[in-house]
Amino acid sequence: MIASQPESSRQEAIELKAAWQRCRVRSRAEIGRILERVHFALVGQKYSEQEIFGVCLALEEAMVNAIKHGHRDRPGKSVQVRFHVDSEWVRVIVKDKGNGFDPSKVPNPCAVENLERPTGRGLFLMHAYMTWVRHNARGNCVAMGKCRQEPPALPKPFAWSEVESPGLAQQAPATAGSAGQKAHVA
Length: 186
Hints:
By secondary structure, the protein is α+β, with helices and mostly antiparallel strands. Helix content is 34%, strand content 16%. It has one domain (7-164): 2-Layer Sandwich (Heat Shock Protein 90). The two termini are 21 Å apart. The model is unreliable at 166-186 (pLDDT under 50).
């Protein structure tokens, strides 16, 4: 945090940091326990069944991609998962230790020539069900957010340094698209 921020902003950041839940997943078999935790948090905030389905599907796809592509299904490698659920937003961060990738190079699974190719569907679903999706520059970390209702104005953007540091981001990126639209990648 910047020392010149007002005390109320620092207190809000501390409270938000404490509200983030952290977990690790090492194999596809462990994904279910993470999804149960997120599901429980969403039910606790009275999200609709449709919202719960979409968030859990997007998170599952992100975790599977991290394990399958980032870690090449190697046992012992752990994927970091952090999430925060409140009455207005769900924020999720999934980070692996792999080399990363360029999401803009993933073929569109809806293009006729790709309909039978088993690639890109996970990213497509993440963008379809979340309000915004961003990847870090390396391509080994995805941050996603779901707004309970489309906001009249998007919250203040955050920097990747906030996402990748223990301070965590407070808000969604300003470059977000609405649900079903592809967010701009910084």
